[in-house]
Amino acid sequence: MGKNTTYRIGELNAELGISGDTLRYYEKIGLLNNVARTPAGIRYYTEKNVSSLRFILRAKSMNFTLDEIKQLLLFREAPQNSRVEVQELTRQKLKTIEDKVIELDKLRKELSLLLNLCGCADEGCPIIDGLDS
Amino acid sequence: MTVIIELFTSPNCSNCAETITDLQEITNALNGVQWREVNIIEELDYAVELGVLSSPSIAINGQLVFTGVPSAKTLLATIKHAKTGD
Known about the structure:
A: 133 residues, mainly alpha, 6 helices, 3% strand
């Protein structure tokens, strides 16, 4: 994807895995704004829309609600004009992400260690014992 | 000052037995040194917390010091260094 490129629904479906129904729903509830249309009324999406969609997908993967994501997108658009409540929501979400990163890092280290132990074993694989316990 | 040495081992670790023998010989000759064998599989969280990446690994006073097998001379020097508290 490059600058000044526009995308049809099918292309976004291929690139991001978002269906047309979902795109239209996000637009309807105000999560995705400024979706342009051709003179024939066919929707097309700009790089900015795609950036918002990527943000939505990331936030959804962290189990943020659509309402929370909507607030965060507003903050993303104009952080200097944000309300105190939105700043607080952003702080809370940042903390959630930081906690998640710590947990993921522990998991990464644990799996790396188990794989290394597999490598030093003459027979069998201690990773199985580690995962069973 | 008591020095606590932890040897992290795992099942079928080919170098661990040799390291245990070295450690026993060294610690028997020194006062104020305690050591224990830590089975990584049984204490995974603790091993990860200390940054253990493979076996054998050696921690002294709760700090990972060796990954792999140090020479007996290096190990002895490190223990003596830890005993002085430097």
